[in-house]
């Protein structure tokens, strides 16, 4: 926590705004999905903001991240613009991916965001590749793999621990453990511990409280610094809570009501706010103003996305190949 | 110009492209062989010696031995391609797609479309296929129809050493992901191959024989069998056009349809299984677009709907042979006589 | 011979022995008494076998040296085969449609008085002793790359080291293999060089200057590197314009010129051929353009088309072709004219043209200055040196 407090006022403000933007974005999508205006299905990151933002505050344009089906938060944390994101979620032509990817495949390569992913655990090998590029081209970049407790059982992820280790790649594996792989508890589905698994492959591994931005920030900083300086891959087991169900429409009956309530009461954004206000780092009124601004921004991009045109038939057969 | 084997031609293509562009890297199981061991650091150069000599020339940063765990290193190659390198990844036997297909099917092939045309993934997957090596069911399949089915991938089947070099150079320079199929029974086949680099464009079929009576479309190693059959048939006064499509995706439908229009008869030769294979695909294409030019029913010569057997006695009859192609051509021509007799 | 000479090739002086090139007219008994084999010729370096497509003469027919006696098809080229001997065809050893290795016995020619038994003996002995050249085995000269003027030049050198050299210069988009039917025939008593111009064949693809003058520098560099003080230059099309440029700009290097369908003799060229040759990357699309090169389109084989494509696919080849085309042609117009300077050429100049040339019109052969001898060959197109190789070889040998 102490090291997190070393952040400048501007950095703290930026972290708050990013977390707040994620929350506002997800809450808006939650409401609209219930209204039936969003096609397909969406998985929301609300409640997990401190993890994505705590890690990505250390990253810049050299760095790459791979995300999961629950990818909106990682996008925003890595600096992807919310307007084109919202268009994409609505399947609009001006969406980030031309309406061809949607919520589960949202990506912005120009920002080093290698994509949300509809396949659980698929980002881990890709991140090894991104790290290999950074290593061979000597960009100084690192690559972060966000994945869930469910994905931690995928062979692709475990193989990637090994590959990153034997090739000494600048990778950080960030296991975001919200306690449930879909509707099944990770307490039941994960044998051993995430930390123990990482250590088994020779990765320096730590458990982190994902409700505490500063804890994430500090642990990620250490792992990323190790990766950047040629020290190889690390693993962070970030324990957190999701506020909503696995997907929108999930009744969530596998969780007890008091469990969800307890999770919502331990809101990582509120905790962050309390800390910085109590430490007199940023004035509460300033944060309130930011809240209003973000709320207006998300509302505006929601209105714009809903009114925006859909792609046409001419778009069906484009973007399959560079040349064919 | 000098005589080179299929193996040497493939090796030379990789070497010349790695010399030309330092973003080209090679990775795979034992592509060098010996990493971490005390002995030779280029002990194998691939299980068939295809990549031999590349590790000493380009070093361990660009010629990377991997662990024996395909999904992670094939996926790593895809991730590297997505972020600025031009990797060649060796999937030792295409049969091993079973353990890494997600990274090819759901990741590599989909990036460009899912990401709205913003992704460029210049990945080359080299892989061995085909029967005839007494390698049985898990090391002998011809799974190119599976890859051909998937939009976003390009699929290449070089039929000889000249084709292999030019098509592999094109694959490495191509900005789309390419699956490059090397028939393991052809590595020692030699022919004249230019020493200079050259690229053969995808989607342009090669007409290896020109005739009037029957069009034979054949894939990969089968092109050589079809040529041999055509030469034998020529001595009996039957002239065949042989079409080597070179790539199944993209597919040069134009040349296939044109040559069928000229001959009016079609035999398709495919070492893959018959269901959902290239033979049925070409037959469907011709039935849809050139039905009126057909003078006889289409004949398909394929492997059976059976796994590749181990016993040499069984494997030899499993593989479509020159005799079967000749018999199919004769049967197609016989149709005219039967119709005339009625 | 179906040669129509507008001017006599060469008027023999009365004191010279009568046409020393015409060995067929030497005393008959020397030749006719012998039994002579007709064997599968080797047309070009890569030829290992050929198909006797059709006999044009029956057994018992008297045949003359140079008479068209059969059609032969190789993977590279389909062409008529002219008899290398004079006599009566006594045996057809190989039937129509059969493919045999280079050097295999196709037929036997002997005088009528030679007994059947003697002919049979000859055939038996030949067949027993015949060993086909091993596939891929090096036989005769092969192309190699040499360094000349700082460039990598591929060349094929044939013949002895002594004698007046010949240097063959191919045209736009071609390479040294265009002389496959000419080089060996002329290499009996002198060194004969065929080179790939820069940007072409196996030579370096980088080009500084694709004009005739620019490419002439490369040829002179080659002659310097090989120690060739002067040579008889045989050029085809653009190569002929290069040869003529050398004769004008470096007259001491040229003993004589044979210009086959030369560029630079008239205002126009078939620009669509040049564009199509460059543009098409598919064999079936390229073939019609290549068929424009010949009077008889049957002569163009699939492998001939594929060989052109193989060249065009080499790194840098397409750029070189575009550069050479841009330096020499502008649509249907030729950029460089040599016509007004031809009279200044000191060396003997012989121009050969196919009457049915569709690339460079035979009309360009009209009205040339008096120092230029012209032979128009009927039934031939732009690559007359391939289409009527024996005629062109005789003209070069007699020059």
UniProtKB/TrEMBL annotation, chain A:
Pfam (any one): E1_dh
Taxonomic superkingdom: Bacteria
Oxidoreductase in keyword set: yes
Needed co-factor(s): thiamine diphosphate
Keyword Acetylation: no
Keywords, ordered alphabetically: Oxidoreductase, Pyruvate, Thiamine pyrophosphate
Reactions the enzyme catalyzes: N(6)-[(R)-lipoyl]-L-lysyl-[protein] + pyruvate + H(+) = N(6)-[(R)-S(8)-acetyldihydrolipoyl]-L-lysyl-[protein] + CO2
Function of the molecule: The pyruvate dehydrogenase complex catalyzes the overall conversion of pyruvate to acetyl-CoA and CO(2). It contains multiple copies of three enzymatic components: pyruvate dehydrogenase (E1), dihydrolipoamide acetyltransferase (E2) and lipoamide dehydrogenase (E3).
Protein name per UniProt: Pyruvate dehydrogenase E1 component alpha subunit
TrEMBL record, chain B:
Keyword Oxidoreductase: yes
One term of GO molecular function: oxidoreductase activity
Residues covered by the Transketolase-like pyrimidine-binding domain: 4-189
Protein name: Pyruvate dehydrogenase E1 component beta subunit
Highest rank taxon of the organism: Bacteria
Record carries keyword Cytoplasm: no
Gene3D superfamilies: 3.40.50.920, 3.40.50.970
Organism whose genome encodes this protein: Bauldia litoralis
Taxon lineage: Bacteria, Pseudomonadati, Pseudomonadota, Alphaproteobacteria, Hyphomicrobiales
Name of a matching Pfam family: Transketolase_C
Assigned keywords, A-Z: Oxidoreductase, Pyruvate
Cross-referenced InterPro entries: THDP-binding, Transketo_C/PFOR_II, Transketolase-like_Pyr-bd, Transketolase_C
From TrEMBL, chain C:
Residues covered by region (Disordered): 1-28
Residues of the Lipoyl-binding domain: 35-110
Names of the cofactor(s): (R)-lipoate
Keyword Mitochondrion listed: no
Molecular function GO terms recorded: transferase activity
Keyword presence, Transferase: yes
Keywords for this protein: Lipoyl, Pyruvate, Transferase
GO CC, alphabetical: membrane
InterPro entries: 2-oxoA_DH_lipoyl-BS, AB_hydrolase_1, AB_hydrolase_fold, AB_hydrolase_sf, Biotin_lipoyl, Single_hybrid_motif
CDD domains linked to this entry: lipoyl_domain
NCBIfam families: PRK14875.1
Protein's name in the database: Pyruvate dehydrogenase E2 component (Dihydrolipoamide acetyltransferase)
């Amino acid at each position: 926590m102490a090291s997190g407090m070393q952040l400048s006022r501007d950095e703290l403000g930026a972290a708050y705004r990013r977390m707040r933007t994620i929350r506002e974005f997800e809450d808006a999508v939650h409401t609209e999905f219930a209204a039936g205006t969003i096609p397909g299905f969406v998985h929301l990151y609300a409640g997990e903001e401190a993890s994505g933002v705590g890690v990505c505050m250390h990253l810049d344009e050299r760095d790459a991240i791979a995300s999961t089906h629950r990818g909106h938060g990682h996008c925003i944390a890595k600096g992807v613009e919310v307007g084109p994101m919202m268009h994409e979620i609505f399947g609009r032509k001006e969406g980030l991916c031309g309406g061809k990817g949607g919520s589960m495949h949202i990506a912005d390569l120009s920002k080093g965001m290698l994509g949300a992913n509809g396949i659980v655990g698929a980002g881990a090998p890709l991140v090894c590749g991104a790290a290999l590029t950074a290593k061979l081209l000597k960009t100084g970049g690192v690559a972060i793999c966000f994945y869930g407790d469910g994905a931690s059982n995928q062979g692709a992820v475990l193989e990637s621990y090994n590959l990153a280790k034997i090739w000494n790649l600048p990778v950080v594996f960030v296991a975001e453990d919200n306690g449930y792989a879909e509707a099944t508890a990770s307490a039941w589905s994960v044998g051993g511990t995430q930390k123990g698994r990482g250590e088994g492959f020779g990765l320096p591994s730590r458990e982190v409280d994902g409700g505490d931005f500063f804890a994430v920030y500090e642990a990620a900083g250490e792992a990323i610094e190790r990766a950047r300086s040629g020290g190889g891959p690390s693993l962070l087991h970030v324990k957190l809570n999701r506020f909503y169900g696995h997907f929108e429409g999930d009744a969530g009956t596998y969780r007890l009501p008091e469990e969800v309530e307890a999770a919502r009461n331990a809101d990582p954004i509120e905790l962050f706010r309390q800390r910085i206000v109590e430490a007199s780092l940023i004035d509460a009124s300033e944060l309130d103003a930011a809240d209003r601004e973000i709320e207006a921004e998300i509302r505006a991009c929601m209105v714009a996305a809903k009114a925006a045109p859909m792609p046409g038939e001419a778009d069906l057969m484009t973007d399959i190949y560079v040349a064919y | 110009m000098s005589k080179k084997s299929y193996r040497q031609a493939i090796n030379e293509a990789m070497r010349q492209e790695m010399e030309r562009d330092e973003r080209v890297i090679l990775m795979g199981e034992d592509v060098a062989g010996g990493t971490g061991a005390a002995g030779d650091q280029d002990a194998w150069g691939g299980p068939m010696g295809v990549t031999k000599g590349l590790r000493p020339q380009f070093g361990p940063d660009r010629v990377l031995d991997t662990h024996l765990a395909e999904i992670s290193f094939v996926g790593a190659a895809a991730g590297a391609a997505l972020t600025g390198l031009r990797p060649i990844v060796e999937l030792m036997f295409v049969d091993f797609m079973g353990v890494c297909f997600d990274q090819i099917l759901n990741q590599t092939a989909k990036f460009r479309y899912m990401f709205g045309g913003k992704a460029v993934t210049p990945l080359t997957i080299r892989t061995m296929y085909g029967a005839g090596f007494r390698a049985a069911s898990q090391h002998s399949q011809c799974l190119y129809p599976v890859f051909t089915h998937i939009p976003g991938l390009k699929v290449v089947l070089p039929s000889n050493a000249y084709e292999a070099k030019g098509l592999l150079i094109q694959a490495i320079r191509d900005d789309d992901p390419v699956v490059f199929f090397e028939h393991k029974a052809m590595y020692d086949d030699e022919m004249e191959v230019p020493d200079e680099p050259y690229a053969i464009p995808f989607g342009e079929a090669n007409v290896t024989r020109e005739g009037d009576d029957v069009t034979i479309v054949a894939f990969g190693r089968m092109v050589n069998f079809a040529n041999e059959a055509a030469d034998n048939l020529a001595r009996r006064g039957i002239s065949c056009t042989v079409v080597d499509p070179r790539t199944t995706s993209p597919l040069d439908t134009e040349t296939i349809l044109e040559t069928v229009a000229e001959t009016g008869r079609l035999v398709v030769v495919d070492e893959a299984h018959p269901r959902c294979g290239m033979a049925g695909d070409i037959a469907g294409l011709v039935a849809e677009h050139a039905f009126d030019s057909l003078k006889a029913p289409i004949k398909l010569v394929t492997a059976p709907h059976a796994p590749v057997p181990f016993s040499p006695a069984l494997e030899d009859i499993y593989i479509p042979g020159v005799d079967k192609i000749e018999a199919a051509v004769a049967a197609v021509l016989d149709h005219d006589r039967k119709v005339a007799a009625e | 011979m179906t040669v129509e000479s507008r001017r006599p090739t060469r008027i023999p002086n009365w004191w010279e022995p009568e046409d020393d090139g015409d060995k067929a007219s030497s005393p008959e008994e020397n030749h006719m008494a012998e039994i002579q084999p007709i064997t599968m010729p080797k047309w070009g370096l890569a030829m290992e076998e050929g198909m006797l497509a059709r006999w044009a003469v029956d057994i018992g027919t008297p045949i003359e040296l140079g008479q068209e006696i059969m059609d032969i098809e190789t993977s590279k080229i389909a062409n008529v085969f002219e008899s290398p001997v004079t006599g009566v065809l006594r045996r057809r050893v190989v039937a129509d449609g059969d493919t045999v290795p280079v050097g295999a016995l196709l037929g036997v020619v002997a005088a009528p008085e030679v007994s059947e038994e003697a002919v049979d003996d000859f055939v038996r002995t030949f067949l027993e002793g015949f060993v086909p050249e091993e596939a891929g085995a090096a036989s005769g000269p092969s192309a190699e790359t040499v360094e000349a003027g700082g460039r990598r030049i591929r060349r094929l050198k044939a013949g002895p080291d002594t004698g007046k050299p010949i240097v063959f210069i191919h045209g736009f988009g071609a390479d040294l293999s265009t002389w496959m039917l000419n080089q060996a025939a002329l290499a009996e008593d002198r060194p004969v060089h065929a080179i790939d111009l820069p940007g072409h064949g196996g030579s370096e693809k980088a080009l500084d200057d694709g004009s005739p003058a620019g490419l002439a520098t490369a040829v002179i560099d080659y002659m310097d590197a090989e120690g060739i003080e002067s040579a008889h230059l045989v050029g085809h099309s653009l190569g002929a314009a290069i040869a003529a440029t050398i004769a004008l700009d470096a007259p001491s290097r040229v003993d004589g010129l044979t210009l086959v369908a030369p560029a630079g003799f008239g205002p126009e060229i078939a620009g669509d051929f040049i564009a199509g040759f460059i543009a098409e990357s598919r064999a079936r699309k390229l073939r019609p353009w290549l068929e424009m090169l010949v009077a008889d389109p049957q002569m163009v084989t699939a492998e001939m088309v594929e060989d052109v494509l193989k060249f065009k696919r080499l790194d840098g080849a397409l750029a070189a072709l575009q550069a050479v085309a841009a330096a020499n042609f502008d649509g249907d117009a030729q950029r460089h004219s040599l016509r007004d300077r031809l009279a200044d050429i000191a060396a003997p100049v012989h121009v050969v043209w196919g009457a049915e040339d569709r690339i460079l019109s035979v009309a360009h052969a009209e009205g040339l200055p008096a120092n230029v001898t012209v032979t128009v060959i009927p039934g031939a197109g732009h690559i007359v040196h391939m289409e009527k190789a024996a005629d062109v070889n005789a003209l070069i040998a007699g020059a």
